[in-house]
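User: Okay, second chain of the day. Same drill as before: sequence in, structure tokens out.
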Amino acid sequence: MSRPPKARGELVEIQFLLEAAGRGLVVAKPWGDNLPFDFLVGRGTRYHRVQVRSTQNRKHRGYQLATMHGRNRAYTVDEADFFAAYVIPEKTWYLIPVKAFSPKKGFVLFPRQSRSHGQFEGFREAWHLLEP
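Assistant: Same drill. Structure tokens below.
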């Protein structure tokens, strides 16, 4: 069933929370939606600002992910530390440091290809990056 983008985003945030918590990470959700990130994630004294996004938009053999907010602005390292990108049809997470793509406004992920295929494939299921 197709869902409106806001509802789909909320469901993906729940999936992220469950996945991260299930891996023993502490997940905190700031009140409201006025910050440029969705969660604080970590353990002990080290936490990362994580923006959660999802995609199901095919582009060639991959999936296009937008990395913009506000008035068509690209995310910067001052706003978030990681993008947790979920490719819905492939049920695959990417944990990508913002510094790896900023100032790009989007890119393509290739979960069906080898990890050496695309620029961001090394971040596929890279949950260890969120650990202290």
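The chain has one domain: 5-130.

User: Thanks, on to the next one.
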